[in-house]
């Protein structure tokens, strides 16, 4: 049901000033206000995925860490992400741009 409302909202017109403009795929990719958050999330998730994939072998081989050290590193990494995400969301919601 919710997905139906989202699809309807996307297909409806967006009021910009006094003119009405339809949203299309091309206008989505041309609008930085719509596209940049998606590109930002992609870059962050790709970077985080690369760090997680390379961190365990590096901690074991070069840093001489035990499995507990590796586990605690990933626990702290996830905890930092969990604690800072709502803060950044709150800040971004209150910035006028």
Characterization of the model:
The chain starts with a helix and ends with a helix. The mean pLDDT is 76. The chain has one domain. A hairpin with a 2-residue loop joins strand 1 (13-16) and strand 2 (19-22). It is mainly α. It has four helices and two strands, in the order H-E-E-H-H-H.
**Helix share bin:** over 70%
Question: What is the number of E strands?
Answer: 2
Largest sheet: 2 strands, antiparallel
> Structural class, from helix and strand content?
mainly alpha
Count of discrete alpha- or pi-helical segments spanning 4 or more residues: 4
Write down the secondary-structure element order.
HEEHHH
Distance between the termini: 31 Å
Estimate the global geometry from the Cα principal axes.
Answer: elongated
Total individual domains: 1
Radius of gyration: 20 Å
Query: What is the typical, i.e. mean, pLDDT?
Result: 76
Extract low-pLDDT stretches.
Answer: none
- Output the strand order for the largest sheet: 1-2
Sheet-strand content, in percent, reads: 5-15%
């Amino acid at each position: 049901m919710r997905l139906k409302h989202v699809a309807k909202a996307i297909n409806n017109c967006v009021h910009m000033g006094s003119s009405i403009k339809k949203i299309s795929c091309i206008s989505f990719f041309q609008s930085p206000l719509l596209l940049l958050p998606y590109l930002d999330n992609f870059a962050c998730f790709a970077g985080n995925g690369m760090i997680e994939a390379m961190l365990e072998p590096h901690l074991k081989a070069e840093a001489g860490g035990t499995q507990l050290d590796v586990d605690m590193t990933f626990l702290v990494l996830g905890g930092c992400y969990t604690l800072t995400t709502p803060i950044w969301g709150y800040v971004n919601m209150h910035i006028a741009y």
